Amino acid sequence: MTGSSKLSVGLGVVHLFCKRPRTPSLVDRNAVLDAVEKATEQGTQVVTAAILGHKADLVVMALNDDLWALRHLQTELTEAGLDVVDSYLSVTEISEYAAGLPDQMKQDRLYPQLPPEGKPAWCFYPMSKRRNPGQNWFTTDFDRRKELMYEHGASGRKFAGRLVQLITASTGIDDFEWGVTLFAEHPDDLKEVVYTMRYDEASAVYAEFGPFYTGLVAPADHVLTTVGIQ
Ligand code: 76R
Predict the structure, then answer these.
(1) Which domains does the chain have, with CATH numbers?
(2) Residue 229, CB half-sphere, CA atoms under 13 Å: how many?
(3) Ligand 1 centre from 58 Cα, in Å?
(4) Which residues of the chain carry a pLDDT beneath 70?
(5) From the candidates 88, 125, 206, 213, which is the catalytic residue?
(6) What tens digit of pLDDT does each residue of 16-57 get?
(7) pTM of the model
């Protein structure tokens, strides 16, 4: 067999948005915890968060360079009784506008260590850049895009220390072009950064957004308890 389930560079990232069944005893809590523990021991980074609102009860976000590892975790979670009601698949990347970053920062973009300390407020949304007449990111020349991304980076840096952003690429992989995962100190930081960045031309003119999910990062056992899986 040729080819590989492994990425040649960076990590695969799957966000699994799950609901507990109406009868919570149908979920095998220990099987969920075992699946997370086993995946972690085998080198998958797993972040769990309780989600607020009707879209999901919890999210299991997992990163590994081997997509089979992600698929096995998904199977074990569903076998344990969780319903995956939405998901997003993407990969870490170094943006073409970030070629000039110091090597360490580039490594951190490709191989992030998650979750960051002291940043429990979490949100995820997918986004794309427009391809409308007069608003087409992909027909805009590179120097202009670079200028706009520089403006975007500068407005983002005002949140240094309060926020960790993980921008993962999904063109050709999922319905939008990027997944945006934010980790913040306080829930209102999430609103502030997204609101502020809406004024960057790269977002104001060119960005389209999918559904937003917001929650609180915590260890898996705590997340299960808070969503009623005892
Ligand atoms: O990686 C870097 O820090 C370099 C500068 C930078 C790039 C290249 C950067 C900085 N971003 C880059 C690329 Mn970003 N980012 C988003 C969103 O809601 C919205 O309007 C947009 C969602 C947020 C909140 C955010 C935050 N960024 C990108 C790309 C890829 C573009 C491409 O390749 O075509 C997207 C889709 C995107 C979207 N960005 C930052 C932030 C923040 C907070 C920073 C500053 C990081 C820091 O320097 O600490």
Answers:
(1) 12-91 (3.30.70.1030), 103-215 (3.30.70.1030)
(2) 26
(3) 25
(4) 1
(5) 125
(6) 999 999 999 999 999 999 999 999 999 999 999 999 999 999
(7) 0.96
